[in-house]
Amino acid sequence: MKEFELINHYFKGRGIIRRDVELGIGDDCALVSVPEGNQLAVTTDTLVAGVHFFEDIPPRALGHRVIAVNLSDLAAMGAEPAWVSLGLTLPNADMQWLEAFTEGMHEIAEYYNVQVIGGDTTQGPLTITVCAKGIVPAGKALKRSSARVGDWIYVTGPLGDAGLAIEARKRDLQLEPQHYKAALEKFHFPAPRVAAGQVLRGLATSAIDISDGLLADLKHILHSSHVGAKIHADKVPMSNALRSSLDEDARMQLALGFGDDYELLFTVNDNNKNAVETRLKQYGVEPVCIGQITANNGDIQLLNQGLPYQLTGQGFEHFS
Ligand code: ADP
Ligand code: MG
């Protein structure tokens, strides 16, 4: 199949059409309109076979995941996703693979009212780059740089499941089948916190999505905001699958150190604490308060049941 045939078959005329897209796939550029009073939020993430996913990942999951991780960045800024473009590098044009991949991609794009407006297709080792664009009212984006001492630190959901799925496979851990299945489903089909991000706009003081691990991503907020944090490890939400599968130290390493779950981490001041909880619950999100911002520049004070706590060993370094 030639490049243009492939594009025509799998991308052109598929997926939703937005009214703000004057020109989608088919010309040298797409043309879109950003509504007045809004800013364009733009993000790019690349997934490389063997680095970010196992080569035998189901293609439908890969199509979902590559869109999800990009929408998660938009969510972390409080932006509403609108358009994506897709850089696709394929070792060969496997029709069955492409059918499932594009199905996974279009499913999640449609769910979030996102139009695929263009891309590029080349031959080479399997690599997928998505550039996602969203809109956010001017000046209202959630940044990493505005957490303040005394703010409460929240996460939007359980952490460590993606890590459990990956470690189980890499280390051949013998998990209960239903726990492995649940963790793998979370890794394959992460749900970006798109609604939560927009709810947090105007309420949270800062936000980030947890892609590299709770502590690593929290550090980005601390450095940008010139503050520190106290974190209660025992408050960090974990799924039943993770709790049932690993001992406390191993679970903590995954939930605090792994990432890939794409929950949001955000800070909120005392005045807006209740409002944030109430509003997020209206959207089916159960935010959990795990700590507080301190003045100790860049430092994370980690506690477990009120006592100083350290993550042990390097048993679970990131998939690389
Ligand atoms: P050009 O040579 O001008 O870059 P291409 O032949 O690469 O054009 O692409 C033709 C059209 O198809 C463009 O509108 C481009 O955005 C779109 N396109 C190419 N590859 C993809 C893809 N993988 N997904 C979505 N759109 C694509
Ligand atoms: Mg091109």
Give an overview of the whole structure:
This is Thiamine-monophosphate kinase. Keywords: ATP-binding, Kinase, Magnesium, Metal-binding, Nucleotide-binding, Thiamine biosynthesis, Transferase. It is an enzyme of class 2 (transferase). GO terms for molecular function: ATP binding; magnesium ion binding; thiamine-phosphate kinase activity. Pathway: Cofactor biosynthesis; thiamine diphosphate biosynthesis; thiamine diphosphate from thiamine phosphate: step 1/1. With 320 residues, the protein is α+β, with helices and mostly antiparallel strands. The protein has 2 domains: 135 residues, PurM-like, N-terminal domain (60s Ribosomal Protein L30, Chain: A, 2-Layer Sandwich); 158 residues, Phosphoribosyl-aminoimidazole Synthetase, Chain A, domain 2 (Alpha-Beta Complex). A 7-stranded mixed β-sheet has the order 8-10-7-11-9-12-13, with helices on both faces. It has a 4-stranded mixed β-sheet with strand order 3-6-4-5. Strands 1-2 form a two-stranded antiparallel ribbon. Helix 3 links the parallel strand 4 and strand 5. Helix 2 packs parallel to helix 3. It is globular, with a radius of gyration of 20 Å. The two termini are 33 Å apart. The C terminus is likely disordered. The structure holds adenosine-5'-diphosphate (ADP) and magnesium ion.
